[in-house]
Structures are given as C-alpha cells and as structure tokens.
Target: TetR/AcrR family transcriptional regulator
Amino acid sequence: MNAQRRVRLSPDQRREQLLELGVELLATRTLDELSVELLAEEAGISRGLLFHYFKNKQEFHREVVRRAAEDLLRVTDPDPNLPAEQQLASSMAAYVDYVSEKYQSYVSLVRGAASGDDQLREIADATRSALTDRITSNLANLGLHHTPAALLAARGWTAYAEELVVSWAAAPPIPRDELIRMLTESLAAVIATAR
Amino acid sequence: MNAQRRVRLSPDQRREQLLELGVELLATRTLDELSVELLAEEAGISRGLLFHYFKNKQEFHREVVRRAAEDLLRVTDPDPNLPAEQQLASSMAAYVDYVSEKYQSYVSLVRGAASGDDQLREIADATRSALTDRITSNLANLGLHHTPAALLAARGWTAYAEELVVSWAAAPPIPRDELIRMLTESLAAVIATAR
Model:
C-alpha cells in the first residue's frame, strides 16, 4: 500500500481494506495473536490511525470475525440455477475450501459461539442460524419434509458439518472430494432418521 | 448440613460434597452465576473455609465442570451385558436425561470447548474425545467398519448429538423417545456415508 493509493480511498473503503487484511492475517493466527500492532504494521499505518477506524481491540476483533462470517455466507451461497442436490454439493465444496484457506478465521468464528464475549457469540450464532435456515428452506427441494424432527436434525447437521470440516482441515484423513460427498449425503441421511 | 455431620467428614469427602453441590447449583445457572459466595451459603460454611478446598474461583469452576464431565461419562457408560445396538440406545437415553436434568452444567461443559480458559477447554475436549472413542471402539459391534472416513463421521456425530440434545433440552419439539431413536439411528446413518 503506498501513500498515493491511501489518499484515494474513502474512510469506508479504507476500513474495508483493513478488515480484509484482518481476515487474511487471522487465517493463520488465533484472535489472541491478531494484535492491533500487527495489523497496523502490515497495513503500513500507525497504531493511532488504526484506532480511527476501530474504537478498540475488541471492536477490531469482532469486526474481523463478522467479516469472516460474511465471507463464509457469501462463498457458500447456493447457485439457484443448479439442481437442488448440486446446489448442496457446490455449497459444501465452497465451505470446505473456505475453511481450508482461512482455517484459523473459521475456528475463531466457531469458537465465538462459546466465548465469553456476547457480541462474538451473537455473530457465531447468527452465522450458524443463517446456514441452518438456508438448509431448511431448501429441504422441500431436496425431497425432504419440514417437520419439527427434521428441523432439529438439520440443526444438528450444521454442527456435524462444522466438526467434520474443522477436523478434516486440521489433518485431512480422506480426499477433499470424499469429504464433500460425505457432507452432502449426510444431510439426507440424518433427516431420514426424523420420520 | 449440620455441624455434627461436618465433623465426621474427611477433607476429601468434604471436597466431594462441595463439588456435588456445585454441579447441582450449576444445573440451573451459568458458570458466571455460580459464585463462591453462593456455594458457601448453600453449603452452610464460610467463604474462607471454601478457599481451603479450592485455591480460587477459577479452580472451583474448573473442578465443578470436571465433575459434571465425570458424571456424564459415568451415567452414559454402556452396559456390556446388552446387545451392541441396545447399548447405544441406553447410553443415549442416559445422555438425554443427564442433559435435561443438568442443562446448564452441560452447556458450561460444552462451551468450555471454546472458552478462553485452556483448562476448561482441555476438560471439554477430553470429554468429547472419550465419548467419541467409546463410539468408535464399538463400531465393529455395530457392524460398521473402522476406516479414516468412518472415524471422521463418528467424530462429527458426537457434535451432532451434542447439538441435538442441547437444542432439544432447551425447548423439546419432539418426544424424548423419538429423540433417543433419532440419536441412535443417526450414528449408523452418517457412518454409512463413509463408504
């Protein structure tokens, strides 16, 4: 980032850029390791200027995690032009690739669900709910029924997928395509138990 | 608890009793709400005496969560005299009942997996691993194969069961027996996707 380019950016664009850099840095670091100093250094700006964009370290962390969540929801958004079953497989492929590339960002997001920080927990819960809603609103297209038991199974499946992808990305015991197939087939498999 | 009874207990017995009381109190409270003052009051002892048994509040919280984890593993320990499939169903029934009765204790345990406290995380991880190991060591008895994909599915299934039981206990949308059947059948269902 050179000074000339910096001048051209609006404050909003600048903040966006800092968040993108934050997600990038968080891919290989825990939240604890993602310091304000590191971001300032990597962005080539002063620590003081950084606090012009983020009130404090906590807000910076939350906004980076929120951005990671938005990225995840965007890349896994199903393509409505595909048949329902292929939509799921293609979402799962994007999910696996996102977690592989941004491993620590994703772990920070998932861990947020259980953190002491209410706002981090809210981001994590909202993301999980958005993913579950997407699945359940698509159940009919997958030939599955909308019953209380099926909705419960769909919610459980989101946790299943989360655990599978995080475990896999940490040390892949099977090929990527095999994982994507397992993720895709397991949804119908667990919902079939909710008869 | 009267003074006479207190005198008869050894320090170890006394500590055990305080932990049991802690798990009991945690059933309807978050860890944040489980104060040292409350335990002292409920146990009828002074705050000072309590710190004779637990170094500080953090140690007290950890030991209560550890005790909750031990209780969970004990009550869900399968009866080896039952056929393999009934062992799973009976473990699941004990699991559902434990979470129903000790809801907040269990949530505190599960949340520990993602908490900032390394030791709470260790307790949660060890408990989840113990539950997963129990399942995977029993795969052959359930007529299922031990492959890397099956082990991954079993790990994911532990997260599935966790989410299902916690969601269910918060607001049961289906009868208990239906939940137990879903839990039991879903294990074979997800492992079948790992062919």
In short: DSSP finds ten helices and no strands in chain A. The radius of gyration of chain A is 19 Å. Chain A touches chain B through 37 residues (CB under 8 Å). Chain A has a mean pLDDT of 88.
